[in-house]
Amino acid sequence: MNKRSEFPIVIAGGGLVGLATACLLAEADMAVTVLEGKPSANHWQAEHTDLRVVALTRASQLLLERIGAWRGVISRRLSPYRAMQVWDGEGSGEIRFTANEVGEPDLGHIIELSAIETALLEQLKHHRHASIRYGVSVQDFRVGDQRVHLTLSDQSFLPASLLIAADGAESGLREKAGIAHAREAYQHTALIAQIHCEQPHQQTAWQRFTRSGPLALLPLSDSHQCSIVWSVPADEAERYLALDDAAFGGVLSAAFEHRLGRLMPMSARHAFPLIERQAERYIGERLALLGDAAHTMHPLAGQGLNLGLQDVECLADQLIRAAKAGVDPGQPGLLRRYERIRRSEATLMLTVVKGFKQLFTNHPMPLVLARNAGMSLLNGHGFAKAQIIRAAMGLGS
Length: 397
Known about the structure:
Blueprint: E1 9-12, H1 16-27, E2 32-36, E3 53-56, H2 58-67, H3 70-74, E4 78-81, E5 83-88, E6 94-98, E7 108-112, H4 113-124, E8 130-134, E9 138-144, E10 147-152, E11 157-160, E12 162-165, H5 172-176, E13 181-197, E14 204-209, E15 214-219, E16 225-232, H6 234-242, H7 245-255, E17 263-265, E18 270-279, E19 283-284, E20 287-289, E21 295-296, H8 304-324, H9 332-361, H10 365-379, H11 382-392
Parallel strand pairs: 1-2, 1-12, 2-8, 5-14, 12-20
Antiparallel strand pairs: 3-7, 4-7, 5-6, 9-10, 10-11, 13-16, 13-17, 13-18, 14-15, 15-16, 18-21, 19-20
């Protein structure tokens, strides 16, 4: 047995990012163990729509195709969106992006998170060198003898060649490794729900920048159903949570300017605080942070999960190349290369998202006029729009 396969790569976190990483590595015949603290998997259910939906870009779709999980995703529920309509609630500025402008069948897909996770789990079961353990997490770890020694929550021990932290925004492994992170609360809360639209959503992702914050309607597989994400101040979110369905539907319809007629909630409403995080380092000794453990951002651009999947592909490609060359997966130069690539790209995305948020949450009249004029100008500039669309899809220029 060669050095690279003597101990498995251990992934802490059995969510989408952790499972995607495991599938990529297992496909390359690398030994992988996934540890998930929850007692069981969150399986997709045909009779219930998961409120947790994601806007998956074409680049993320291509990654799932590479893994072999895309077939499992499309066998469940998903909704392609072929256009995106964005407008300023304080003026006439409006912009429409369409898939036709870049010769693509769609801009992306709105998919239930549990549908992707279930498809990844199904794919992982095909790999003989991959395993997943539920109800177990990493309690402690130390590095020595060219490996990382893990103490698990069930008091068992596990040696690993590399520990990958995919354990979410409040990453315990990031904290245990002593990796600091910048944290900025947006002073806003995301309100989510599934709603019924009186008029069909036209396979369009809609976003209106209201005075309170951006309101997004994401089209679901039923042409009269959408998932909403509304970013509002915390006290406003509390008021909306307290309203009955009819009253909230009225508020929501007015906030959306009745563009899809009457909007009515079909599910319970949930809320969570919006916080930007950026780890000062994405790596430690025989440790790599992925996804939300490394960074989180405002949902207005819908790029959080897609950014995490870019982390996955970058790290996995580095590890697969190392395995083919017989190089230790915990080799510092390999991990530094991953960090250099991904931290710079995440920093750029965080900066862009923060800039958009500041642009649309400041209300001096000169700024309102300028941003409305800018949106109208961009809407008439086909080449610039096409570049933005391709970048948002993760396809480059």
